[in-house]
Write a structure and sequence with these properties.
With 264 residues, this protein is an alpha+beta fold. It is built from seven helices and twelve strands. Strand 8 and strand 9 form a beta hairpin. The longest helix has 19 residues. The termini are far apart.
Length: 264
């Protein structure tokens, strides 16, 4: 896909975000036909959001880390996109219910990098990324989409839309993560004080550390890499139907603390 078409797609996605309106789909002339096209559009879209909102890329999110979700979208692996500081909040956070359409709640485990994960000539694995992780924390992703129906938009269009990123809220950082059994780490989500859903770290590629390894390899393949200080979130352990104005959502991660977001 050439530059003008990449810019057209990115411009339409940004305008949809600014106008708070949804697209049936990107036009045929600039719609990504495959994942390679999609990530090139995503790059332009992220650049345009940074130019408009300011801030920086502070890390990366991996999405579709659940095998069932991959099958639903026709993917053979997760997908990924940058976390932008303009949409990253610390718990407890308040978000306007007008800032988005879906407000789908996803409970996730995240990490802060303490070391770079550069190209090494060999793929990263859970064991080789773990020493680079300085801290872990619970997080809530507030998923959004610029499309009328994200379930039928197809993976390339979702990737172009920065993998459906709305807002992302993270909790207190916990060091000493070697003592945690992340492959069997629970989360319980409350909506307005009532228990809504429960999830487990095994729901994301069997272990959130596997997701970090996948993300490190994905970025190396794209000519970049994870850097010390960056934040990483590993996909949903459990999803909760879209929040509404007035809702208060709290995800309890036990030893990893809790994360809270309210919708005004």
């Amino acid at each position: 896909m050439d530059g003008p078409r990449l810019n057209q797609a990115a411009g339409l996605l940004l305008q949809a975000r600014l106008d708070r309106r949804r697209l049936a789909a990107l036009p045929d002339a600039c719609r990504p036909m495959d994942e390679a096209d999609a990530y090139l559009i995503q790059d332009r879209y992220v650049d345009s959001m940074l130019a408009h909102y300011g801030g920086d890329i502070v890390g990366y999110k991996a999405g579709c880390t659940n095998l069932t979700a991959q099958q639903q979208l026709g993917l053979s692996s997760p997908f990924a996109g940058p976390l932008l500081s303009a949409f990253v909040l610390t718990s407890p956070a308040v978000i306007s219910a007008e800032d988005g359409f879906m407000r789908m709640i996803e409970a996730e485990i995240g990490f802060r990098l303490g070391q770079d994960l550069p190209p090494t000539g060999a793929p990263y694995e859970a064991a080789t990324v773990t020493p680079a992780l300085a801290a872990a924390f619970g997080a809530i992703e507030v998923v959004d989409s610029r499309y009328d129906d994200w379930t039928t938009a197809g993976a390339p269009q979702l990737i172009a839309d920065n993998v459906c990123t709305g807002f992302w809220v993270y909790g207190d950082e916990i060091t000493g993560i070697d003592s945690l059994d992340l492959a069997d780490h629970p989360v319980r989500v409350r909506r307005n004080g009532a228990w809504a859903e429960t999830g487990n770290g095994a729901n994301v590629l069997g272990n959130p550390l596997h997701v970090v390894a996948w993300l490190a390899n994905h970025l190396v393949d794209r000519g970049t890499s994870l850097k010390s200080g960056q934040l990483v979130t590993t996909g949903t352990m459990i999803a909760v139907n879209g929040a509404e104005k007035g809702d208060v959502i709290e995800a309890d991660y036990g030893a990893l603390g809790s994360v809270k977001v309210s919708f005004s």
